[in-house]
Amino acid sequence: MTDPQHWDPSRRDLMVSVAAAAVLAAAPELAKAGAGLASESRMPTYAPVAFTVNGEARQLEVDTRTTLLDALRERLHLTGTKKGCDHGQCGACTVIVDGHRINSCLTLAVMHEGSEVTTIEGLGDPDNLHPMQAAFVKHDGYQCGYCTPGQICSAVATLAEIKAGVPSHVTEDLFGEMLPTDAEIRERMSGNICRCGAYSNIVEAIAEVAGRRA
Amino acid sequence: MKAFTYERVATPAEAAAAAAKNDGAKFIAGGTNLLDLMKLEIETPTHLIDVNRLALDKIEATPEGGLRIGALVRNTDLAAHEGVRRDYALLARALLAGASGQLRNRATTAGNLLQRTRCPYFYDTAQPCNKRTPGSGCSAIGGFSRQLAVVGVSDACIATHPSDMAVAMRALDAVVETVKPGGEARTISIADFHRLPGNTPHVETALEKGELIAAVTLPPPVGGKHVYRKVRDRASYAFALVSVAAIVQPDGSGRVAVGGVAPKPWRIEGAEADMRRGAKAVTDGLFADARPTHDNEFKRTLAQRTLGSVLTEARG
Ligand SMILES: Cc1cc2nc3c(=O)[nH]c(=O)nc-3n(C[C@H](O)[C@H](O)[C@H](O)COP(=O)(O)OP(=O)(O)OC[C@H]3O[C@@H](n4cnc5c(N)ncnc54)[C@H](O)[C@@H]3O)c2cc1C
Ligand code: SF4
Ligand code: FES
Ligand code: FES
Asked: In this protein, which residues make up the domain named FAD-binding PCMH-type (chain B) (predicted)?
């Protein structure tokens, strides 16, 4: 990602954009016809954004295209949060924003002015593990570990959702008591894919934190 | 992703004005569909209008006894809302059958209605697709069409609308409230909201350019037993092959809308007259004009059997 402070449009970039602009001026119907040609002349635009990450106030000037995931990893160097698919299909990028777990790859950094973001680094550290982190270690809830930060952020939020009475697809009675059964945990965690297939140990780790078994 | 300028708006009027001012503008809500498509450069807005700060995130009772759902209400919150769970369980169930916990926390009511097809050729920018590039041809016709539509299709496009939520809203006779770029408000029934492809598959809804969805209104509850049954290739976190949304009354009458089979939530009120005669009678009516491909012919049988099991459950 280009740092805006150090962004220095090269002579070539400028010439390309001037040339494209000239073409567009000469053929406005082409410009209207679609993104294809018109977009060639687009310059990146930057915008400021301020949010809190793991309790610390952060301010950035970002290319508007920067996802929250890339802002965390590339700009704030919080590389615990992982990029798996970059399309909402794997859950590796799951972080907790204003109390809700979301896919940080499908949201823009600039959309989070004033947000409170919690990443895996904010849940705990090696000397002071979050209970969910400790349970994943105890139950071997991973092999390669790539999906693990997303799994753990998702798991923490999943238990909060059950406590708050948010129903799931497998909840039989929409007004009954919500319990952290294996079926509930599996369904609610289905947005987190594990290529290593550590699922059964992940369920055990979450069930333990839910207080269901020791 | 193509570069774009970005602004936050605070009121629907501001949003409409911003849309009127910028030709290449798009609204962004949860971003879970739009950003996915922008990364692939299938969508290339020059300007994004962030509507997340509009005060359209409430669910309120209407004077008629229904519910008015703000455009920005997140799918999780809508499914968990007490009134929705009690009186519109069909909607709660459809929402919970869609996407993942993370995605539902961001996805909004308006964004869900406006999500675009999951046709694999629409996503593959190396292939012709009339929806993505009007006039380029349809790769799905004669291609791999197992997931695609069997009814309501045209020679230009056989894509399905992928939303679960919209199928329940169709059965519930929801009404979409909008604000046009000029500022005037209007309402569009959910039946008229999504369009069939015809010769213009890139035109997907009745919305005008820059028209903002403000809310979706549900009429007063109709009672009955609500069942949403989604059949898919894996048990969770997958789009529907076929889904059935049914409301069944004690006397056996009711309503049925089907997802995964058409370019819009598929409901034919006339076919519901046959509810008491069983699933086959209803699906015969729903699929009377079907034009399936060799790959997706199975969806008719699947829809019939799914409805059969739903009716059994509802009457049981
Ligand atoms: C991996 C994955 C799996 C999924 N599985 C399912 C599934 O099983 N079932 C299902 O139903 N869905 C599924 N989805 C889709 C998901 O439900 C949609 O992405 C989501 O509902 C879109 O809502 P959003 O608020 O994020 O929309 P955005 O991405 O913000 O916007 C979508 C469109 O709506 C427009 N828009 C947004 N708000 C307004 C407004 N107020 N007025 C006018 N226009 C507006 C935007 O301009 C854009 O064109 C899945 C998505 C992913 C990524
Ligand atoms: S079915 Fe529609 S979306 Fe799919 S390739 Fe054909 S035109 Fe495109
Ligand atoms: S990286 Fe975000 S869901 Fe895969
Ligand atoms: S531990 Fe390897 S992907 Fe989950």
From this structure: 1-223
Q: What is the side-by-side strand order in the sheet with B242-248?
A: B225-231, B242-248, B254-259
Counting Cα atoms < 13 Å in the Cβ hemisphere of B282 gives 31
As a whole number of angstroms, the distance between CA A132 and CA B55 comes to 35
Helical H segments across chain B, by residue range? 12-21, 34-39, 75-80, 82-87, 89-96, 101-106, 109-114, 120-123, 165-171, 190-193, 279-286, 298-315
Q: Residue B78's closest CA among B62, B65, B94, B64? A: B94
Q: Supply the DSSP string of A100-134, one letter for each residue.
A: EEEEGGGSBGGGGTT-EEE-HHHH-BTTB--HHHH
Residue B70 neighbours by CB under 8 Å, 6+ apart:
B55, B56, B57, B58, B59, B109, B214, B215
B8, HSE (Cβ side, Cα atoms, 13 Å) = 16
* Closest residue in chain B to residue A185, using alpha carbons only: B101
- Domains present along chain B, CATH in parentheses: 5-52 (3.30.43.10), 225-315 (3.30.390.50)
Tokens representing B31?
């971003």
Q: Is B135 on the interface with A (CB under 8 A)?
A: no
pLDDT digits (tens, 9 = 90+) for A119-171: 999 999 999 999 999 999 999 999 999 999 999 999 999 999 999 999 999 99
For tokens 């073409």, the residue is A23
A46-53 β-sheet, strand order: A56-63, A46-53, A116-118, A94-97, A100-103
Q: CB of B47 within 8 Å of any CB in chain A? A: no
Contact assessment for residue B74 and residue B108, using Cβ atoms and an 8 Å cutoff: yes
Please say whether the dihedral angle defined by the alpha carbons of residues B276, B279, B280 and B284, taken in this order, is positive or negative. positive
User: What are residue B231's phi and psi, to 5 degrees?
Assistant: -110, 125
Cβ–Cβ below 8 Å for A191 and B103: yes
How far B154 CA lies from chain A's nearest CA (Å)? 24
B130 lines ligand 1 (CB under 6 A): no
ipTM of the complex: 0.97
Report whether A188 contacts A115 (CB < 8 A).
no
Residues near A200 by Cβ (< 8 Å), separated by ≥ 6?
none
Q: Which residues in B lie closer than 8 A to residue A87 (C-beta atoms)?
A: 36, 39
Q: Using CB atoms within 10 A of its CB, is residue A207 exposed (0-12), middle (13-18) or buried (19+)? A: buried
Other CB atoms within 10 A of residue B82 CB? 11
Q: What is the pTM of this model?
A: 0.93
pLDDT of residue B281: 97
Cα of B267 from ligand 1 centre, angstroms: 22
What φ, ψ does residue A63 adopt, rounded to 5°?
-60, 130
Which residues face B225 on adjacent strands? B248
All structural domains of chain A: 42-123 (3.10.20.30), 124-214 (1.10.150.120)
Both tokens assigned to B223: 């009672």
